[in-house]
Amino acid sequence: MEIKDRIKALLDYLDVNQKQFAELTGISENTISNAINGKNTPGLAFFNAIQKAVPDVNPTWLYMGDGNMLDKAEEKDGKSVLRTLYQGVEGFISKITGNKIHSMEDCEDELDIANRHIEHLKSEVEDKKEIIQLLKKTGTR
Q1: Cα–Cα dist 69/139, whole Å
Q2: Which of 74, 97, 119, 140 has minimal Cβ neighbours within 10 Å of its Cβ?
Q3: Helix/strand/coil (H, E, C) string of the chain?
């Protein structure tokens, strides 16, 4: 199995797209795309970033294509992969909100705050649209 196939298999297993994988690993989307399309051979930094972001991946499989994708212990316990994805979400939310996330509850709270803010902004946009319509009707600009 070539590296491009292993990366595709890992994305499929994690159920993420290239953009999400880039956010999870810190590898640029372009670098991931080039590796998947066979345009370049990834270097050690590429592999290390994946191994750091998804520590449950068998490094021998990742680097060489030998063995199973996951370490034997992880084949029995899929919770570790969920933990890895949670850590990626945690980092992403921390980055966009500027707040430290300590638990899944914190993530949910931050998402609720963001959703309320979005609804408020939508309301403001609608108000502005109404004002524009009224001004157009009266001929005032």
Answers
A1: 67
A2: 140
A3: CCHHHHHHHHHHHHCCCHHHHHHHHCCCHHHHHHHHCCCCCCCHHHHHHHHHHCCCECHHHHHHCCCCCECHHHHHCCHHHHHHHHHHHHHHHHHHHCCCCCCHHHHHHHHHHHHHHHHHHHHHHHHHHHHHHHHHHHCCC
For domain 3-99, which CATH number applies: 3.50.50.60, 1.10.287.610, 3.40.190.10, 1.10.260.40?
A: 1.10.260.40
Q: Are 33 and 48 in contact (CB under 8 A)?
A: no
Could you tell me the sign of the dihedral formed by the alpha carbons of 56, 82, 113, 129, in that order?
Answer: positive
Q: What is the pTM of this model?
A: 0.53
Query: How far is it, in rounded angstroms, from Cα 57 to Cα 121?
Result: 42
- Judge whether 36 and 8 are in contact, CB under 8 Å: yes
Please report, for the chain, the start and end positions of each structural domain, with discontinuous segments joined by +: 3-99, 102-141
Mean pLDDT rounded to a whole number for the chain: 81
